[in-house]
Amino acid sequence: MDWDVLRQYAPILLRGFGITILAWAFGTVFGMALGLVISLAQRYGARPVRWVLQAYIEVVRGTPFLVQLFVLYYGGPLVGLRLDALPAGLVGLTIYGSPYFAEIFRSGFDAVPPGQAEAARAIGMAEPAIVRRILLPLGLVSALPALVNFSIILTKETVILSVITVPELMYQVQRMSTETFRYLEANLVLALFFWGLVELISRGGRRLETRITRHLLERPGHG
Amino acid sequence: MTFKTTLGSLLLGAATIGFTMPAAADQLEDIKAAGKIVTATDMHYAPFDMLNNGTYEGMTKDLFDEVAKEIGVEPVYQDIPWTAELPGLEVGKFDIVIAPVTITPERLERYSFTPPIADATVALVKAAGNDEMTAPEDIAGKTVGVQQGTAQFRQLQAYGETLGGVDVKEYGTTDEAYADLATGRLDAVAGSLPNLTYLVKNRPETFAKFEPAQFGEPTYFAWVLRREEESETLLAAIEDAMAKMTEDGRVEAIQTKWLGSYTELPATAPGQ
Amino acid sequence: MFSIQAFLDSFGPLLWAARYTLLVSGLGIALGLVLGALVCAAALSRWRAARFVAALWVSFLRGVPLLVQLLLMYYLLPVIGINVPAIVAAVVTVGICASAYISEIWRGAIGALPPGQSEAAVAVGMNNRDLWTRIILPQAVVMSLPALVNELILLVKASSLVSLVGIMEVTRASQAQAATTFRPLEVYIAAACIYLLINLCLAGLGRYLEHRMAV
């Protein structure tokens, strides 16, 4: 181990980690929002809308993020879309995550027993209220572990932003290892930083999980 | 490694998980006993290393084929991404890294270098049709892309300071820098002359060289060995082979084939 | 400008390399499903030690990037004298990493089942084995299918990392092709088409199972 190298590179590594967290948070929040909109539009939209969205899901989910980012950043200017590295990366992450989130929301909504919505309709609840008060809260409960799982996966996808020169953690770690040949230290940095981030996310997720499933446990016998 | 042998080793999985032998005293003897020398290179670095429809070819391969023949062993070629090459060499996954590595004082402290295989002096390309810049000093105040952590990067930075400032942008590989030059985000890309010459030859409608293309200190590409006693005989054998090949004109023929011209190179790694 | 010719020419070498993508991701998925079931069982077990090991397994494998895991497996194990062939290292690493995500998906699905069901089953005198094979697992498997398909598709794409140990799969082959032709955009879009084809098959299979098994 060479602590001097780590000390010397600590400022740029920390700055890189900051950008990694920023990219992850942005991609998770906006990707989740877009995914929610897509899954609701798929549930309530007209047939052509559903068809177009399904195609969007399959294409975006089925192709590697590296390729999507490459096309957006290096291919975009060919059709007049010129984004800088960081905006391109953030937009790319949002688009990349959205179909995964949409599929997770879909399965969450599917897990809500249809009788719940039917009962609400029977007592005269309006459709938007059913979505807001029945579908969303119940669907979220069963979707939560998968949502946390995918947002953890998204932390690792941020390293691909290094390809378009976004100075996130991977980019800085590569700079350190090509300049100093300290490969062991470089991998250790990657492992520890990501492990820490992922631990935080999954702990937060578990806490949220126990909180929102509490009502299931408090009233045994229902369901 | 072929698909079939891969399948084989997968089926044998457990059986082929061996324990490495204790380090022997002499790498050259081991290689001769095995009858093969295991190499690693990044097979996307034209014109040195490239894959043409799945077949490995390039200047490195032509040179190393001859070197292996002189030593009397079969070369085993593997495509390993650049980031994994030096770590893999250090733990003995391969005998030698035959990707062209620029000789620098920092690397000489940690690794042994073979005699140079090509000129690696830094040069510049721009977009075809850009008449605003012609000589290297015209990059003052412009945005120039270069591969992260390379010797060429250092030289570009130093040169930029003498010009009063150049906006240097670092990329993981030069391929991405070329792509960004094509989009117009970059004004120029710095790299070694052989790579840039090959690029311009293949995409003359998109890229053009500066006149003169090169600037900075002369540097060289060479192959890399572990810096340890047991590798010394192997290094000597490679040095002898390359001296012989330079003498009988094989090096000249290979250089002319891939680079279009011949440059005489030092017989040992400068500074070693 | 975009060259259709360069795009079409890329398919030869890329399809050839797709063998490795299929091999590594196929075996990795198989290993991941088996190990994932075991880890999930451990996570839900009555024994504290088993739960602890499962939690550590999931935390480490989800936390440390696959790239680093692969480097550990291939370039660090030799230091302590264990030398694994590249393809074995690739499949095992991908499978082990997948098991962490898969076990979490299953654990989540089982946890989301209304507890009243199990209680009712126990109340009518169902034994533990029937409770699992007739009530819990059938529902949990169906519920987890969309998330599982998501994960498997990610795995196919993550298999590109195995190029690090010298295996020429689709992503690596496209990088090589791009570096010789200097037409990255055309080559990468061709690579995207190949991944899309593989993943459409996976997604289609997932939807088919979902409809078949719907309760």
TrEMBL record, chain A:
GO biological process: amino acid transport
Keyword Transmembrane: yes
Pfam families: BPD_transp_1
Membrane topology: Multi-pass membrane protein
Keywords: Amino-acid transport, Cell membrane, Membrane, Transmembrane, Transmembrane helix, Transport
PROSITE patterns in the record: ABC_TM1
One Gene Ontology molecular-function label: transmembrane transporter activity
CDD domains reported in the protein's UniProt record: TM_PBP2
Family in the record: Belongs to the binding-protein-dependent transport system permease family. HisMQ subfamily.
Name the UniProt record assigns to this protein: Inner membrane amino-acid ABC transporter permease protein YecS
Taxonomic source organism: Jannaschia rubra
TrEMBL record, chain B:
Molecular-function GO term, any one: ligand-gated monoatomic ion channel activity
Signal recorded as keyword: yes
Boundaries of every Ionotropic glutamate receptor C-terminal domain copy: 37-261
Domain named Solute-binding protein family 3/N-terminal: residues: 36-262
Membrane-traversing stretches: none
One GO CC term, this protein: membrane
Keywords annotated in UniProt: Signal
Name of the protein described by the UniProt record: Sulfate starvation-induced protein 7
Taxonomic classification: Bacteria, Pseudomonadati, Pseudomonadota, Alphaproteobacteria, Rhodobacterales
TrEMBL record, chain C:
CDD domains: TM_PBP2 (cd06261)
Keywords: Amino-acid transport, Cell membrane, Membrane, Transmembrane, Transmembrane helix, Transport
Keyword Transferase applies: no
GO molecular function, one term: transmembrane transporter activity
One GO location term (cellular component): ATP-binding cassette (ABC) transporter complex
Membrane topology: Multi-pass membrane protein
Annotated ABC transmembrane type-1 domain residues: 18-206
Family annotation (SUPFAM superfamilies): MetI-like (SSF161098)
Location of this chain's protein in the cell: Cell inner membrane; Cell membrane
Family recorded in the similarity comment: Belongs to the binding-protein-dependent transport system permease family. HisMQ subfamily.
NCBIfam families: HEQRo_perm_3TM (TIGR01726)
Functional summary from the UniProt entry: Part of the binding-protein-dependent transport system for glutamine; probably responsible for the translocation of the substrate across the membrane.
Protein name, entry field: Inner membrane amino-acid ABC transporter permease protein YecS
Originating species: Jannaschia rubra
